[in-house]
């Protein structure tokens, strides 16, 4: 439910919009019930007032996010501010060392509205993307990390020219060829497989460095590597798809037994699906990191 909320858009809450659309704040009971739509940690608490201030505030959606250092907390607060500007709906933010406290409520309505729950869900999304989160708390990134480590090993066995490969790793390749009877790898230098030779070259020159960069980026949660990982995912996914097509619907299929084909596909399909998923995932992450454009409805309300 929180994901669906985060993908929503706020409606204008200007005085004009309130009059024309009949907007009103949520009742206390409804506001408390809707907490179940958000991730754990949100509560109803009023925004604190300044010293000597006479004004009191109604209950707001409140949560405290904790980070490993002030710089990470500051960047997170800035991202929340950019998203708030894009929607024209702004929270109270208290930035301290390693923590950011947030209060969402609709000032023009004097209470809580659906807009506040949308922005609270978005704040959770931004927090999950904030730099400095441990790899062990990012299960998808952990899966990518392990895949890159395994793929780097596989590249050392299969894709790099054999005279560069240590003898124990050559034994792994020999075992794979024996079980699979893979028609591509042994015939890399045949004229009809020039495309496959170029694929191995691209893996050696482009993808292996991407594995090293990706391992570092996932370990440190460095988002600057996302564009490189998008490129890697596109190349790896569609190159492996070509190989799958060759052994399933090409002439090479006639050379393989059912056992050979099953073994080949067990090795090929993960190396197509995971990069494809990574390509889509990293593209979506990049989109979420970009400032959201102001909505048409918000622009008209200004």
From TrEMBL:
Membrane-crossing segments per the record: 142-164, 194-219, 226-249, 261-280
Domain EXPERA residue range list: 140-279
E.C. designation(s): 4.2.1.96
Source species, domain of life: Eukaryota
Keyword presence, Isomerase: no
GO cellular component: membrane
Subcellular location: Membrane
Any one of the GO BP annotations: tetrahydrobiopterin biosynthetic process
Catalysed reactions listed for this entry: (4aS,6R)-4a-hydroxy-L-erythro-5,6,7,8-tetrahydrobiopterin = (6R)-L-erythro-6,7-dihydrobiopterin + H2O
Keyword terms: Lyase, Membrane, Transmembrane, Transmembrane helix
A GO molecular-function annotation: 4-alpha-hydroxytetrahydrobiopterin dehydratase activity
Similarity-based family: Belongs to the pterin-4-alpha-carbinolamine dehydratase family.
The protein's name: 4a-hydroxytetrahydrobiopterin dehydratase
Organism of origin: Malassezia pachydermatis
């Amino acid at each position: 439910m929180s994901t669906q909320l985060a993908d929503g858009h706020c409606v204008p809450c200007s005085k004009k919009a309130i009059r024309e659309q009949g907007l009103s704040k949520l009742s206390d009971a409804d506001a408390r019930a809707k907490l179940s739509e958000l991730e754990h940690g949100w509560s109803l608490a009023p925004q604190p007032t300044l010293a000597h201030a006479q004004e009191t505030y109604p209950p707001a959606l409140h949560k405290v996010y904790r980070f490993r250092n002030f710089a990470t907390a500051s960047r997170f607060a800035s991202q929340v501010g950019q998203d708030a500007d894009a929607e024209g709906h702004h929270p109270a933010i208290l930035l301290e060392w390693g923590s950011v406290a947030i209060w969402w409520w609709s000032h023009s309505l004097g209470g809580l509205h659906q807009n506040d729950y949308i922005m609270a869900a978005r704040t959770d999304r931004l927090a999950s993307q904030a730099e400095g989160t441990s790899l062990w708390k990012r299960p998808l990134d952990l899966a990518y990390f392990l895949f890159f480590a395994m793929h780097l090993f596989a590249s050392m066995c299969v894709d790099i020219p054999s005279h560069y490969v240590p003898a124990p790793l050559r034994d792994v390749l020999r075992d794979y060829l024996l079980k699979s009877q893979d028609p591509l790898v042994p015939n890399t230098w045949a004229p009809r497989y020039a495309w496959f030779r170029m694929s191995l070259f691209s893996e050696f020159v482009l993808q292996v460095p991407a594995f090293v960069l990706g391992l570092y980026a996932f370990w440190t949660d460095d988002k600057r590597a996302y564009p490189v990982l998008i490129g890697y995912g596109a190349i790896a996914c569609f190159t492996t798809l070509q190989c799958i097509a060759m052994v399933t619907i090409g002439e090479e299929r006639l050379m393989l037994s059912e056992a050979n084909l099953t073994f080949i596909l067990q090795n090929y399909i993960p190396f197509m699906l995971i990069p494809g998923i990574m390509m889509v995932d990293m593209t979506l992450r990049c989109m979420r990191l970009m400032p959201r454009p102001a909505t048409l409805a918000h622009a008209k309300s200004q």
